[in-house]
């Protein structure tokens, strides 16, 4: 409704005055994440499939499904190692390209050198597909689409991921859980603010609230680190 109001499709957003109920932590759906080893094994198992570059990008950036499928080559800057975004959404199963969810979602994401190389190879493969399809190719300018250039439906993308996971010796997770897996990188020392910016969250506080299930483990690690520092100080004093 906010998008429609902004674009002039409707006179006003009738939903704006409403106060939506907040989803309590107890009601949040179960969140599953992979370890780095599990993610590595999955990507290795599907390395010869056509969709692996999209899975790789989702895992290494924390991008939402619609952001991955709505990404245009014009928004990808491989030499600078960064990308911008729009989103591919499904309304009544009909696909349309749209602006991203919020102002904070309109972020620029930095890319590591391996992801840049994956995208370079994929761009070359996609160019070959375009030549093979000839005049039948529907050039949408998107990074990820069907072999004939047509839009790839988000539900089909998720189903492809589910089938790939089922064939691998890894814990069963959903496509959106790749985003959660990327988010927990702050356990490895990445500042929460940076993780929040990459995910397009409104604030680091929101990121910590969503991923509070990983905090107990971090608390224990922090306690162990502090204890080791004290022990080293005692030994030095002795």
Protein model, in words:
The protein is mainly α. It has a single domain (35-237), classed as hpI Integrase, Chain A, CATH 1.10.443.10. The protein has ten helices and five strands, in the order ααααβββββαααααα. It has helices at 2-7, 36-45, 52-61, 65-69, 113-133, 154-166, 176-183, 192-199, 204-210, 215-237; strands at 76-77, 82-83, 87-91, 94-98, 109-110. The model has no long low-confidence stretch (mean pLDDT 84).
Structural class: mainly alpha
The main sheet comes to: 3 strands, antiparallel
Roughly what fraction of the amino acids lie in strands?
5-15%
Reading the helices and strands in chain order gives HHHHEEEEEHHHHHH
Give the domain tally: 1
> What is the assigned CATH homologous superfamily?
Intergrase catalytic core
Give me the CATH fold name. Answer: hpI Integrase, Chain A
Uncertain stretches of 5 or more adjacent residues: none
What's the arrangement of strands in the largest beta sheet?
A: 1-2-5
> Span from first to last CA?
68 Å
Helix content: 40-55%
Alpha plus pi helix count: 10
> What is the level-2 CATH architecture name?
Orthogonal Bundle
Quaternary structure state of the chains depicted: single chain
Kindly provide the name of the CATH class: Mainly Alpha
The overall pLDDT, averaged over residues, is 84
